[in-house]
């Protein structure tokens, strides 16, 4: 096989765009190679991506990668200098980026004028073993030579070195390239060779602290302290234990440091858990309080809105009734003016001339108070408490053990009694003549005058109150009533046989168990004597719970879920829910009592 057929030509290392040796070559999907920079610039700004050589078009711009194998081979050629510097310089007209492969081919032809075989390659290596041989080339070229030589020698002969590459040692030549020389028989003994004399490194120079061969000792170390490598090691070996102990101590120090770091990590985890639990408890309490206050605020606003509408409807109905009466008077006067019956006119006019009995509406208006001030004050107090807790956390941190990490919950009893909700409605047959009931029998308020209603033994005629329609004769029952905006009211239960006519003493002995409000902030229970009660938070809604068998009547502030008071007695007959909005006090207490649905609180 000829040498020319064994090597690649210089054109195969040339980029067809810049006409120079490849730099970071990359291959297109069609198989052609170009410099990465050249092909990238070639495609920049193009709408169609074609191969510069075969003109193959790609639907989208290929994602090119550097051809590492081609780059390594190209870099081998570009790194050559001296007799193996390839290519022409810019003055020669061809080139432009460095060496090419032309001179490399000529040098190989000079060294191997005959067809290349293993015999003449080995001969050339032996003749040139002390000079710059073909093995000055980098390993890829050497491997290429070996692959080009036909296997015509017998295994085990010196020329078989190409079939099984020998152990080689690199050294740097004067031209900066790495030189590879054969180690010969020393390969089988695994003894490193001197790069200069190719002899075993059997001696140790203590002066220069390096291993040398016998020839190095004669030439460069003849006046130095030299011993055999074995002797040096036997004298050095006792220090091995000291080094091991030092290493073990260093390992121990680092092991202890690892344990210290692990302990610190555990402490950090505990601190994180403590901080997380504490912050969840603290902020959940804040969020829960804010959400509850917001719900109370929305509820109070809605109650005020409904109460205003109900009040307005009641006032409008009364005004319309008076307007109707006045229009009837107006019609009678008009008819009287056109009558020719003088006697009738004289007798009738005095009655028609007197103004009808009407209400003075000058002081009547809707109450603009939405009843939210109490909620804001409660929220403000809660925020102040939260700030105190937050300041304590800043100064002292969270305690090591957080017992309660859950949000604020309602009292278990307050939550339990909601399961006994009773759908209460008002009994029109028991309502005082001044009371006005809504169509759904859930709302009651006091008008300014009596209405024409049939009298019956069930109806109260002296005190403005009304009973519920639902008789309670056993079990547990619970209902809620809105009292927002009122200055006076009575709520509770009454015995079926209570006196409903004339003046009544509302006490448990007479069959009445209820809570009263007077003058907007005076709460009391109608015991004998009265039991005053202080409520820090003014309730907007009252919950009434009855346990008939236990003879218990309990009252709750639904908004704050706080128990207010409980009566304990013995029930021997049916009892009924009791409602009294009290008189409207010239519009100051005209807000209604509203029976509301009971919602389970989670």
Describe this protein with a few key phrases.
35% helix, 24 strands, 12 helices, 7-stranded antiparallel beta sheet, alpha+beta, 602 residues
Describe it.
The structure is a single chain. The protein has 602 residues and is of the alpha+beta class. Helices cover 35% and strands 17% of the residues. It contains twelve helices and 24 strands. The chain has helices at 36-43, 68-78, 102-111, 118-127, 139-148, 186-189, 214-219, 229-236, 239-337, 342-353, 373-396, 412-417; strands at 14-15, 20-21, 25-27, 33-35, 49-50, 57-58, 168-172, 178-182, 203-205, 210-212, 226-228, 435-437, 443-446, 466-467, 476-482, 489-495, 512-518, 522-525, 531-533, 541-547, 552-557, 562-568, 575-580, 593-596. The strands form seven sheets. The protein has a seven-stranded antiparallel β-sheet with strand order 12-13-24-15-20-21-22, covered by helices on one side. A six-stranded antiparallel β-sheet has the order 14-23-16-17-18-19, with no helix packed on it. Helix 9 (239-337) runs antiparallel to helix 10 and helix 9 (239-337) packs antiparallel against helix 11 (373-396). It is elongated.
Tell me the layout of helices and strands.
Layout: E1 14-15, E2 20-21, E3 25-27, E4 33-35, H1 36-43, E5 49-50, E6 57-58, H2 68-78, H3 102-111, H4 118-127, H5 139-148, E7 168-172, E8 178-182, H6 186-189, E9 203-205, E10 210-212, H7 214-219, E11 226-228, H8 229-236, H9 239-337, H10 342-353, H11 373-396, H12 412-417, E12 435-437, E13 443-446, E14 466-467, E15 476-482, E16 489-495, E17 512-518, E18 522-525, E19 531-533, E20 541-547, E21 552-557, E22 562-568, E23 575-580, E24 593-596
Antiparallel strand pairs: 1-2, 3-4, 5-6, 7-8, 9-10, 9-11, 12-13, 13-24, 14-23, 15-20, 15-24, 16-17, 16-23, 17-18, 18-19, 20-21, 21-22
Helix pairs in contact: 9-10, 9-11
């Amino acid at each position: 096989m000829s040498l020319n057929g064994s090597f690649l030509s210089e054109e195969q290392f040339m980029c067809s765009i810049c006409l120079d040796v490849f730099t970071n070559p990359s291959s297109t999907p069609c198989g052609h190679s170009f410099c990465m920079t050249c092909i990238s610039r070639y495609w920049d700004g193009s709408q169609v991506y074609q191969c510069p050589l075969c003109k193959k078009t790609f639907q989208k711009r290929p994602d090119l990668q550097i051809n590492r194998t081609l780059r390594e081979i190209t870099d081998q050629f570009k790194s050559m200098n001296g007799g193996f510097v390839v290519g022409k310089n810019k003055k020669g007209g061809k080139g432009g980026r460095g060496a090419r492969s032309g001179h490399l081919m000529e040098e190989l032809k000079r060294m191997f004028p005959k067809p290349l075989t293993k015999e003449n390659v080995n001969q050339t290596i032996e003749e040139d073993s002390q000079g710059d041989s073909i093995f000055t080339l980098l390993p890829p070229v050497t491997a290429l030579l070996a692959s080009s030589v036909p296997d015509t020698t017998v295994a085990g002969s010196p020329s078989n070195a190409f079939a099984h590459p020998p152990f080689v040692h690199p050294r740097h030549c004067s031209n900066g390239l790495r030189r590879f020389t054969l180690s010969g028989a020393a390969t089988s003994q695994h003894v490193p060779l001197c790069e200069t004399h190719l002899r075993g490194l059997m001696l140790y120079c203590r002066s220069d602290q390096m291993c040398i061969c016998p020839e190095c000792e004669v030439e460069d170390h003849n006046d130095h302290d030299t011993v055999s490598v074995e002797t040096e090691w036997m004298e050095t070996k006792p220090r091995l234990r000291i080094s091991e102990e030092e290493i073990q101590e260093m390992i121990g120090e680092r092991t202890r440091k690892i344990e210290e770091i692990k302990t610190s990590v555990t402490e950090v985890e505990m601190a994180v858990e403590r901080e997380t639990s504490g912050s969840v408890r603290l902020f959940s309490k804040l969020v829960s309080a804010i959400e509850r206050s917001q719900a109370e605020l929305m509820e109070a606003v809605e109650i005020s809105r409904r109460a205003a509408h109900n009040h307005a409807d009641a006032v409008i109905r009364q005004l319309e009734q008076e307007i109707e009466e006045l229009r009837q008077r107006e019609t009678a006067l008009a008819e009287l003016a056109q009558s020719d019956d003088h006697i009738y006119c004289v007798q009738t006019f005095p009655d028609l001339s007197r103004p009808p009995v009407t209400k003075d509406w000058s002081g009547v208006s809707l109450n603009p108070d939405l009843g939210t001030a109490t909620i804001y004050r409660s929220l403000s107090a809660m925020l102040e408490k939260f700030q105190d807790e937050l300041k304590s956390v800043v100064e002292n941190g969270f305690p090591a053990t957080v017992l309660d990490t859950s949000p604020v919950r309602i009292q278990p009893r307050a939550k339990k009694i909601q399961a006994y909700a009773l759908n209460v409605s008002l009994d029109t047959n028991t309502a005082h003549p001044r009371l006005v009931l809504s169509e759904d029998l859930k709302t009651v308020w006091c008008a300014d005058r009596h209405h024409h209603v049939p009298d019956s033994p069930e109806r109260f005629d002296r005190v403005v109150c009304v009973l519920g329609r639902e008789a309670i004769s056993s079990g547990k029952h619970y209902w809620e009533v809105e009292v927002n905006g009122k200055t006076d009211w009575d709520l509770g239960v009454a015995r079926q046989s209570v006196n409903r006519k004339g003046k009544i003493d509302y006490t448990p002995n007479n069959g009445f168990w209820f809570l009263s409000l007077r003058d907007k902030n005076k709460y009391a229970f109608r015991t004998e004597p009265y039991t005053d009660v202080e409520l820090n938070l003014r309730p907007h809604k009252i919950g009434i719970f009855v346990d008939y068998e236990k003879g218990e009547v309990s009252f709750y502030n639904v908004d704050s879920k706080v128990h207010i008071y409980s009566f304990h007695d013995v029930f021997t007959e049916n009892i009924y829910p009791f409602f009294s909005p009290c008189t409207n006090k010239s519009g100051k207490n005209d807000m209604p009592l509203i029976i509301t649905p009971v919602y389970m609180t989670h």
